[in-house]
Specification:
The chain has helices spanning about 5-30, 30-40, 45-65, 80-100, 105-110, 115-125, 130-150, 155, 160-180, 185-210, 225-250, 250-255, 260-275, 280-310. It is mainly α. It starts with a helix and ends with a helix. The relative contact order is 0.22.
């Protein structure tokens, strides 16, 4: 084996490990967004809560964009960056709407069809290769997620469809992110997402207010709401930055199963903030999720080593 092949293998392993760590960090942070949104939903409609989330994101990122002179968008990426914004708006709005009707744990459980959708789209759109072991790892991870969070379409009716729509939109968001993460700066990508979202939501809310459509328009805020709005903005900005970083270091289909890490934080936050007590199956389901992720990570390392040997 040549020294160059060894270095390439080590570099690939290091990059993939970094991407997996970054997606895990993102999934530990993102449930904080949902806690803030569910709390704000007691006073505001989901559309305005979604507007708050993206408005805070552009406020936090604007200084970084100016400091790094990131106002020039790479050629050929503007349309995809705008589509990232639209898909994330749809995913966020549907999920914020869902958690006003469903417990946080139940909504996230339904949303967790997203890694399976993402893996399928990664093959169809990005042309990534998916191995049978990876498919089984994802399926077992999904089974574990269902055991932990126990969704029920029968109990909650039509609102249970909202996390499903959110999951599909989020999968496309991840695909678009993977397409341009190597050419566009992460700060710029998240700023453009926020800007597109604020413009789109602002237009809908203004037109809705003039047309007297329920759930649109702006309600005034007070000091009780500010901390939740700021917290939601910080969590969403940091969490989604880690998602962008992760797609720069590992393929989307590899990252998909590690999104189940969100279950741990979601279950904990649901209990602490909304008194959602986990069922007895939580421990079994969590073990399955962790075991699936660890096994997948191990298999990717083995495959990377085998590829390095073949190249030597």
């Amino acid at each position: 084996m040549s020294d160059r092949s060894v270095l390439l293998g080590v570099s690939a392993n290091s990059s993939m490990s970094k991407g997996i760590l970054q997606i895990c960090l993102a999934m530990l942070i993102i449930p904080a967004i949902d806690v803030c949104a569910k709390t704000l939903g007691r006073s505001f409609d989901p559309l305005q809560v979604t507007f708050f989330r993206f408005f805070m994101q552009i406020c936090l990122l604007l200084p970084l964009v100016i400091y790094n002179r990131l106002w020039t968008i790479p050629p050929g990426t503007l349309a995809i960056q705008c589509m990232r914004g639209i898909t994330l708006v749809i995913a966020t709005f549907c999920f914020f709407w869902a958690i006003q009707h469903l417990p946080l744990a139940e909504a996230i459980a339904i949303f967790f069809v997203q890694p399976l959708i993402l893996t399928g789209l990664s093959v169809l759109i990005l042309g990534e290769t998916i191995r049978m072991r990876r498919i089984f790892a994802i399926i077992f991870g999904l089974i574990g997620a269902m055991m932990v969070l126990q969704p029920s379409f029968v109990i909650f009716g039509w609102p249970a469809l909202l996390p499903l729509v959110s999951a599909v939109s989020m999968a496309f968001y991840m695909i678009f992110t993977s397409r341009i993460s190597s050419v566009a700066h992460p700060f710029q990508m998240q700023f453009v997402v926020g800007l597109v979202a604020v413009i789109a939501l602002g237009i809908v809310m203004i037109l809705g207010q003039f047309a007297d459509i329920p759930g649109t328009g702006f309600l005034s805020t007070d000091s009780r709401h500010i901390k939740w709005i700021v917290g939601m903005g910080i969590a969403s900005t940091i969490g989604h930055m880690f998602i962008v970083f992760s797609t720069q270091n590992a393929p989307a289909s590899v990252l998909a199963p590690f999104q189940y890490v969100e279950i741990v934080t979601a279950a904990l936050f649901g209990y602490l903030f909304f008194n959602d007590t986990p069922a007895d199956t939580t421990f079994v389901g969590t073990f399955i999720i962790i075991a699936s992720g660890v096994y997948l990570f191990h298999r990717e390392r083995v495959v990377a080593r085998q590829m390095a040997k073949e190249d030597s």
